[in-house]
Amino acid sequence: MAFHKTLERQLDRFLPDAADREKLAPLFQVISHYYESQERDKQLSEHAFSVSEKEYQEVLHNLKEQDEIKRQSIENLRGVLQLLDQRLGINRETDDDLMGVVNDLKLQVVHSKKLKADLQRAKEAAENLAKAKGNFLSVMSHEIRTPLNAIIGNIHLLENEDHLPMQEPLINSLRISSTNLLSLVNDILDFSKIDEGKVVFAENKISLANLIGNMKEVHLYRARENQNEIQITIDPEIPAFVVGDETRLSQVMNNLISNAIKFTQHGVIGVSAKVLHQQSCRAAIRFTVNDSGIGIDKEKQELIFERFTQANSDIDRKYGGSGLGLAIVKKLLELWGSKICIESEPGKGSQFYFDMEFQRCDAPVIPSLKKSETDLHGLKILLVEDTEFNVQMAQRMLTNWKASVDVARNGEIAVTKCGDNSYDIILMDIQMPVMDGITASKIIRKSNPTVPIIALSASNSTEIFGDVVAAGMSDSVSKPFNPNDLFKVLLKWSGEQTKVTR
Ligand code: ADP
Predict the structure, then answer these.
(1) Terminal C-alpha separation, the chain
(2) pLDDT tens digits in sequence order for the chain, 502 residues long
(3) What spacing in Å lies between the alpha carbon of 311 and ligand 1's midpoint?
(4) SS3 annotation, 171-196
(5) CA–CA separation, 89 vs 86, rounded Å?
(6) Hey, which of 75, 325, 331, 422 would disulfide with 255, CB 3.0 to 4.6 Å?
C-alpha cells in the first residue's frame, strides 16, 4: 500500500520493517490522508493568494487612472474658472481640491444668475425707453404735422386763388420755407422709424421707366433755379414692370437728385437706370445719379452718410440742409439688401449709385381713372375732420377741384351721415374726439363694404397703418399732405369701389 510521499520517507527512515508497517497500516492510512489534505489546502491557499494579488494590481491600476482623470478634470475646471474670473475681474486664491472647485462653481452660478437678472432689467429699461421715444415721436409728429398741414394747405390755396402780383414773392418764400420745414420734420421722423427697423416695404407692381422718367418733372423747378439740366437715361432692356416699393425707391432717388441739383450750378444732372443682368423672372438694375457740381473730398466720402453730417462746416450756411438725407438713403438701402456707393472728385462732380434686384412681372395694374384728370367734378366727398383750420383748408381745396364736400366733425357724425347719404369717397381723420376714425370706418364698412375710405393721419406710427388696413380703409394720405398727392389719391379712387375682403 502506498502512502503520501512524505510519510513514505519517514517510514523508510523510522520503521523499515515491512511487517511492522503492515500491522499499523490503517493508522498510516489516516496519517497519509492527513498529509494529502494538508498539501491540497496549501496549494489552494497559494492559488487564492496569487489570484487576489492580480486583482489587487488591477484595482490599483484603475484607481490610479481614476485619480489622474480626476486631477485633470480639476485642472480643466480650474482653467475654466480662471478664464471666467479674468472676464469678470474676480481675484481668487488657487485651490486644488475638488470641494474648492465645487464652491467656486457655486459662486460662478450665483454670479451669472445675478448678471442675467441685471441684463434682464437693463433690457426692460432699454425697451421702455425705446417705447417712450416711439410714443414721443408719434405724439410730436402729430402735434407738428397738424398745424403744418394747415400752413401748407393754405399757402397752396393762396397760390391758386386771386392775389396781388406783389404778394407773389411772399407766397413763394412761404411755400419754400414750409416745404423745407416739412421735409426736415419728415426726415427726422423717418430716420427714427428707419433706425428702429420699422420700415415695411410695399410690394407693388411698378414701372421703373415711369418712376425714373417722372423724376425730371418733379425736380425741374429746382434744377432751373440753379440753371441745371437734367438728363434721364433709361435702358431699353429694362423690364416693363417689377415688384417693388415705389414710394421708398422714389424717396432714395429724390434725395440723391435733390443733392445733385443743390450742389451743382450751371451743370448737368444725369439720372439713369441700367440693367446689369436679368433672367425670365428677376432683373438686377443699377440706379445712378451723377452731377458736375462741387464734388466731395475723398476723406469726407464716408462721413457724409452719418446722420447730421455735412462735408464742410460752411455747407449748411451756403446750401442749407440737415445732413439726414444720405443717412436715410444708406439705411433704407441696407434694409433693402443694397448699398449706396460714391465716386467723387472735388471741383469735378459726384456720382452716387446702387444696385437692386427685382422680381419681374408682366401684367401691369393700372388704376381706373374714370373722372377728368384736371378736376374732381361731380365727386361727392365726406370730409371727416375735427381741426377747424384743416376743415377750412381741405374744404376749399376740394371745392376748388370742383368736388362737392360734406363735413363731419367726428367719427360718430360720419357714421350717421353715411347712413343717411351716399358718398363717392370718405376722407377720414384718425384722431378725433367722441369717436376716432378707425372705429368709425369699422362701423361704416359693415353697412357699406365698397365706398373708398381714405385715412388722413398726422401720426408717424407704423401701428396706425396696420390699424388702417385692419379697419378696412382703402388708402391713406399722411398729413401734412402735398395737395398734388391728395389730388392723385382722390383721382385714383374716384369711380372705384374698394375690393374689401374681410
Ligand atoms: P444735406 O444735403 O441735407 O446736408 P445729406 O445727408 O443729403 O444732407 O448730405 C450730406 C452732405 O453730403 C451734404 O451736406 C454735402 O456736404 C454732401 N453731399 C451730398 N450729395 C452731394 C453732391 N451731389 N455733391 C456734393 N456734395 C454732396
Answers:
(1) 119
(2) 788 898 888 888 888 888 888 888 888 888 999 999 888 888 888 877 776 777 788 888 888 888 888 888 878 877 877 777 776 666 666 555 667 777 777 877 888 888 899 999 999 998 888 778 767 776 777 778 778 888 888 888 888 888 888 888 888 888 878 877 887 787 777 777 777 777 778 788 888 998 898 888 888 888 998 999 999 999 999 998 999 888 889 889 999 999 999 999 999 999 999 999 998 889 999 999 999 999 999 998 988 998 777 777 676 666 766 778 899 999 999 988 999 999 999 999 999 999 999 999 865 444 444 445 667 888 899 999 988 878 888 888 888 888 899 999 999 999 999 888 889 999 999 888 899 999 999 999 888 888 899 998 876 666 677 788 888 888 888 777 778 788 888 888 886 543 332 2
(3) 7
(4) HHHHHHHHHHHHHHHHHHHHHHHHHC
(5) 5
(6) 325
- All domains of the chain, ordered by start, with CATH? 5-68 (no CATH), 203-362 (3.30.565.10), 367-499 (3.40.50.2300)
DSSP conformation letters of 24-41: THHHHHHHHHHHHHHHHH
SS (H, E, C) 117-161: HHHHHHHHHHHHHHHHHHHHHHHHHHHHHHHHHHHHHHHHHHHHC
Q: Output the nine-digit C-alpha cell for 403.
A: 368736388
Ligand 1 atom with the smallest distance to the CA of 352 is 23
Residues with CB under 6 A from ligand 1: 259-260, 263, 291, 293-296, 304, 310-311, 315, 321-327, 350
Task: Give 184: exposed, middle or buried? Use CB within 10 Å, 0-12, 13-18, 19+.
Answer: middle
Which residue's alpha carbon is nearest to atom 16 within ligand 1? 311
Cis ω for the linkage preceding 480 (within 30 of 0) = yes
Question: Which of 259, 319, 331 for a ligand 1 pocket mutation test, highest count of atoms within 8 Å of Cβ?
Answer: 259
Q: How far apart are CA 43 and CA 369, in angstroms?
A: 117
List residues bridging with 404 in a β-sheet: 380
Whether the model pTM is above 0.70: no
CA nearest ligand 1 atom 7, residue: 325
Count how many residues are written for the chain: 502
CB–CB of 196/162 below 8 Å?
no
CA 267 / ligand 1 centre spacing (Å): 17
For residue 321, report the distance from its CA to the centre of ligand 1, in Å.
8
Give the list of residues 6+ apart from residue 142 with CB closer than 8 angstroms, or none: 431, 458, 459, 460
Ligand 1 pocket mutation pick from 316, 326, 345 by most atoms within 8 angstroms of CB: 326
Say how many Å lie between the CA of residue 442 and the centre of ligand 1.
45
CA distances from 143 to 132, 180, 195, 387, 408 (A): 16, 17, 21, 12, 21
Query: Which residue's alpha carbon is at the smallest distance from atom 19 of ligand 1?
Result: 259
